[in-house]
Specification:
The protein is mostly helical. The chain has helices at residues 49-60, 64-69, 76-87, 91-101, 106-118, 122-134, 159-172, 176-188, 192-204, 208-220, 228-240, 244-256, 264-277, 283-302, and strands at residues 150-151, 154-155. The protein has two domains: 49-172, Serine Threonine Protein Phosphatase 5, Tetratricopeptide repeat (Alpha Horseshoe); 190-302, Alpha Horseshoe (Serine Threonine Protein Phosphatase 5, Tetratricopeptide repeat), CATH 1.25.40.
Length: 303
């Protein structure tokens, strides 16, 4: 799946059904699809020395998200500190260890995260869902059959079902990232109602990304009744919580009068701000910046 948390922002100079209203527009935009979140998409990885030291300390303490932020670097020292504690039964250490090695040894990460998730650590469950979904074809490590999860090196559950269970455990445990991943997995299984419900839970937990996803569902009527007013309100909520995509989508809503009164001045102010201030380091931000700049140009050309 490609990532696109956009309600409908594909605006060019000629415009289209996905952008500013145009006589040639004759079809609806397709609903968005996306992949499971990695923590790098929630918190930027750029760290100064003091912040990096703080993240390392948090990782050593077993903060799985902190460990995941460091997973693309040199993790040997941290892994050596966490692995024996995980082996000794420290669930938080297992969560940190699994997050730390997920990109270099998916099978080892899966086993460690599974132990932590079984111990009801929601962050571990959220990461485990992504590992399971991204590495369905990775051979599993052998595990003690008495622990009930592994026999002859294979999971007793289908990987898709295990990913769904892990994401649900994370979401039920109050991790918004788990709710987003749960929504993605339900969408992949064509269960649109369950997908929208998971996004709603994530949005209620405070995730602007979940609010953007739920807004897309409302925009297209996927899993919920089509509700342009609700979609615009969710875009505004996401925007107020710092989501560049939420702001870009809200700009488009004002440009087209979809769910809000048409207001080209507000559309211009929002799109110009996103175009000017958003860094293009992350996939969602790249989309938001590019489309906001295109919308801003289209609005300027229409004056």
């Amino acid at each position: 799946m490609h990532r696109a948390r956009v309600i409908a922002i594909a605006v060019g100079a000629a415009a289209s059904a996905c952008g500013v209203d145009h006589p040639a527009a004759s079809h609806e935009c397709s609903p968005p699809s996306r992949t499971l979140l990695a923590q790098q998409e929630i918190e930027p990885p750029e760290l100064d020395a003091a912040a990096a030291a703080s993240v390392r300390d948090a990782c050593i303490a077993g903060d799985a998200y902190a460990c995941e932020r460091l997973a693309n670097g040199d993790v040997d020292e941290l892994a050596r500190a966490l692995e024996p504690r995980c082996t000794a039964g420290d669930a938080a250490a297992c969560a940190g260890y699994g997050a730390l090695v997920r990109f270099r040894d998916a099978a080892t990460a899966e086993r460690a995260l599974d132990r932590a998730c079984t111990a009801k650590l929601p962050r571990a469950c959220a990461i485990l869902a992504g590992v399971l979904a991204h590495h369905r074809n990775t051979p599993q490590l052998s595990h003690d059959p008495e622990e009930g999860a592994w026999v002859d090196g294979k999971s007793l559950m289908d990987p898709d079902a295990r990913a769904l269970a892990a994401a649900r455990a994370a979401c039920d445990g109050g991790e918004a990232r788990g709710c987003i991943n749960l929504g993605v997995l339900h969408a992949a299984a064509n269960d649109e109602r369950a997908s929208a419900s998971a996004y709603r839970r994530g949005c209620d937990l405070g995730s602007p990304l979940a609010c953007v996803d739920l807004a897309a569902a409302c925009e297209h009527g996927t899993g919920v009744a089509r509700d342009l007013f609700g979609a615009a309100a969710l875009a505004q909520r996401a925007c107020e919580r710092g989501s560049s995509l939420g702001c870009a989508n809200l700009a488009l809503a004002y440009a087209n009068g979809r769910g809000v009164p048409r207001d080209l001045s507000r559309a211009h102010a929002l799109s110009a701000r996103v175009c000017r201030e958003t860094s293009a380091g992350w996939p969602d931000d790249q989309i938001a910046k590019a489309e906001a700049c295109q919308l801003d140009a289209a609005l300027a050309a229409a004056r």
